[in-house]
Amino acid sequence: MVVSRLTGSVRVVGAGLLGTSVALGLRARGVDVILADASPTHVAIAIDLGAGRAPLDSDEPVLVVVCVPPDVTARVVAAELAAFPDAVVTDVASVKSGILDELVTVGADVSRYVGSHPLAGRERGGPLAARADLFVGRPWVVAVHDGIGYQRGSVVDDLILDLGATLVELTAEEHDRGVALISHVPQVVSSVMARRFLDAPNAALGLAGQGVRDVTRIAGSDPDLWVQILGANAAPVRDILLAYRDDLDRFIDALADPTAPGARKRVAEELAGGNLGVERLPGKHGTDKRFTTVIVMVDDRPGQLARLLAEIGEIGVNLEDLRLEHSPGRQVGLAEVQVLPEAADRLTTELAERGWRIAG
Ligand SMILES: NC(=O)c1ccc[n+]([C@@H]2O[C@H](COP(=O)([O-])OP(=O)(O)OC[C@H]3O[C@@H](n4cnc5c(N)ncnc54)[C@H](O)[C@@H]3O)[C@@H](O)[C@H]2O)c1
Ligand SMILES: O=C(O)C(=O)C[C@]1(C(=O)O)C=C[C@@H](O)C=C1
């Protein structure tokens, strides 16, 4: 059994995507996990998945992790602080300032509360979407505040490190401004873009490749959750959207007469600005990019992908990640296989020798 930093039981309230993922990750380290949820079905599914056990009257958790929708988070945190007077309580809600303010207003014991937020998730909710490795390598913000000391709060650091995430300390305000830019506005832009597809001809949609899928994956997110997130972080999100409107206006102006003197330069400058921006994202074209991508063409026939994965195993190369690009009606899919840079050349050569077509 893998050793954990955490000692003692951890109670997870909210056995949806986030809660069940936290619970599965902790169970993999041998931690005793107690599961609670307003939905008995979600608790039952999470228990069936091996994410933990039902609560007992004798439970004395060292840590409570509240993983419920943002609009009920403060209320649930306050109830957990009251029910477990020796436990530290954290939550994982996507917006932080309002929750701390609400807890202070209702007089909750914030000397045992520190909010947090893993920057990891999926567009689907519920326990069945959970993954034990959801947080591995992802940033996890601890929203530090003056009401709790470092030693008391260190059990939350242990949780984050046990789940393989990277701890980042920010104030609640710094966090909320940051996620407006890197999470909340991208959600709005993705939704607005995908909305354009509603009245598009099928023939146009059939041309969809990976670019549009990258930009619109999160358009499939849960509107109930995002109404709450955007409402709770409205001011910073709005500021960025106003700047974004100016960006779009410059593009629109430049394209009004694309052959006019200077118009091409203006369009090129806008695009070059995007090149520079994306290079600033850690792990994207930057110096800490960890894996090399080998793109393999896979015939759209039963068993081909399984054969590819089996042969990569036979070659003895570890598959770090896999992404599939496949459009309905096409005869070939592209498997983007991520491997350690030092293994990429050998994998490419040996796959080609075995008859696979390498697309990049
Ligand atoms: N979805 C993401 O990608 C993501 C990523 C990071 C953080 N978060 C945050 O995590 C939290 C949970 O999101 P999720 O995606 O896991 O949602 P989810 O819908 O998958 O799970 C929420 C769970 O909370 C339960 N619940 C609702 N009200 C409750 C209450 N009053 N008491 C007890 N249980 C209650 C629901 O039954 C459900 O099982 C949210 O605050 C969200 O902002 C989400
Ligand atoms: O990758 C996704 O599907 C997500 O929705 C993850 C994402 C994000 O924007 O990074 C979304 C909201 C959460 O608060 C944290 C993570």
Automatic annotation (TrEMBL):
It catalyses: prephenate + NAD(+) = 3-(4-hydroxyphenyl)pyruvate + CO2 + NADH. It is an enzyme of class 1 (oxidoreductase). Residues 8-289 form the Prephenate/arogenate dehydrogenase domain. GO terms for biological process: tyrosine biosynthetic process. It comes from the Bacteria. Keywords: Amino-acid biosynthesis, Aromatic amino acid biosynthesis, NAD, Oxidoreductase, Tyrosine biosynthesis. PROSITE patterns: ACT, PDH_ADH. SUPFAM superfamilies: 6-phosphogluconate dehydrogenase C-terminal domain-like, ACT-like, NAD(P)-binding Rossmann-fold domains. Pathway: Amino-acid biosynthesis; L-tyrosine biosynthesis; (4-hydroxyphenyl)pyruvate from prephenate (NAD(+) route): step 1/1. InterPro entries: 6-PGluconate_DH-like_C_sf, ACT-like_dom_sf, ACT_dom, NAD(P)-bd_dom_sf, PDH_C, PDH_N, Preph/Arog_dehydrog, Prephen_DH. Its EC number is 1.3.1.12. One of its GO terms (molecular function) is prephenate dehydrogenase (NAD+) activity. Residues 293-360 form the ACT domain. PANTHER family: PREPHENATE DEHYDROGENASE, PREPHENATE DEHYDROGENASE [NADP(+)]. Belongs to the prephenate/arogenate dehydrogenase family. NCBIfam families: PRK06545.2-3, PRK06545.2-4. This is Prephenate dehydrogenase. It comes from Agromyces protaetiae.
